[in-house]
Specification:
- This protein is mostly helical.
- The protein has 3 helices and no strands.
Length: about 40
């Protein structure tokens, strides 16, 4: 999951983070949510 965050992608905008958050909620991915919130 961390590789999909804007910081890891070298981007300065929040769009990758927003898209990842939407996907985590849609799929109810609790493990991914915890990992992204570290």
């Amino acid at each position: 999951m961390l590789e999909r965050l804007a910081y890891s992608l070298g981007q300065n905008d929040e769009e990758p983070n927003i898209e990842l958050a939407k996907e985590l909620v849609k799929t109810k991915n609790k493990k991914g949510t915890k990992e992204a919130n570290r």
